[in-house]
Amino acid sequence: MTTLDLPLEINLEAVHLTDEQFYQLCIHNPEMAIEQNAQGVLIVMPPVGGESGNQEMELGTDLALWNRQSQLGVVFSSSTVFQLPIGSKRSPDAAWIERSRWEALTPEQRRKFPPIAPDFVMEVRSSTDSLELLQAKMQEYMASGVRLGWLFDPKGQQVEIYRPGAEAEVRSLPTQLSGETVLPGFSLNVALFT
Q1: Which residues does the chain have with pLDDT short of 50?
Q2: Which residues contact 46 (CB under 8 A, 6 or more apart)?
Q3: Residue 174, preceding bond cis, omega within 30 degrees?
Q4: Within 13 Å, how many C-alpha atoms sit on residue 115's CB side?
Q5: β partners of residue 121
Q6: pTM for the full model?
Q7: Which of 60, 65, 103, 163 is the most buried (most CB within 10 A)?
C-alpha cells in the first residue's frame, strides 16, 4: 500500500472552516470525497476498488429495499455528507434517518449537507481504510446520536455492532444481523464477504 492509497489528512484546526466554507470546498471539488473530523482535520478519501464498491452497494441495496417496503424513513448513499452535532462532517457508506426527523429539517437543510445524525449508519472497510480510523469514525457517530451502526471488516471477516452507551459487539462473518428497534423488521444475512 502506498501513501496514495491512504486517506489524506489536512490539519485545519487553526483555520476553522465555517459550515458554508466546507460545503463550498466540497461542491467545487466534486471529484474528491472530503470529510472533516470533530477536531477540524480534513480527510480526503481515496476512491474504493471494485470489491469494496460492490460490497457497499449490495448492503446499501438491502437497506433501501427494506425501506421501500416499510416506508419508515429515508436512505442515503455514501455521497451524502452529514453535519454531525459534535462538529464533524461525515459520509457513511449507507445511512438511514427516520422519516419524521428528516421531514423536520428545512428544505435548505435537506438540499445541502443535512445538520443531523442519522439513526443508522453502515461502514464497509476497504483496502485503503485503517480499521482504527473507521472505529474512531463510528465513535463519532455514536457521540452524535446515531442509534445503531455496523462496521464491516471483510479483511478481518467480522462486523462490529455499535449501540449508544455500549462497547462494540464483534461478530465473525458470516452472521445474521437485526435492525433491532431502530430498523424494525430489517434483517441481514451477511455472507457477502465469505
Answers
A1: 1-4
A2: 4, 5, 6, 7, 128
A3: yes
A4: 13
A5: 95, 149
A6: 0.91
A7: 60
Report how far residue 87's alpha carbon sits from residue 102's, in angstroms, rounded to the nearest whole number. 19
Supply angle C-alpha 2, 156, 92, rounded to 5: 75
**Rounded distance between C-alpha atoms, residue 65 and residue 61, angstroms:** 6
Map grid coordinates 460490497 to a residue: 55
The cell numbers describing 185, all together, are 423488521
Cell of 14: 487553526
- The predicted pLDDT at position 192 comes to 60
Q: How many Cβ atoms sit within 10 Å of the Cβ of residue 182?
A: 19
Query: What is the pLDDT at residue 12?
Result: 66
Cβ contacts of residue 91 below 8 Å, gap of 6+?
33, 35, 45, 78, 79, 80, 81, 82
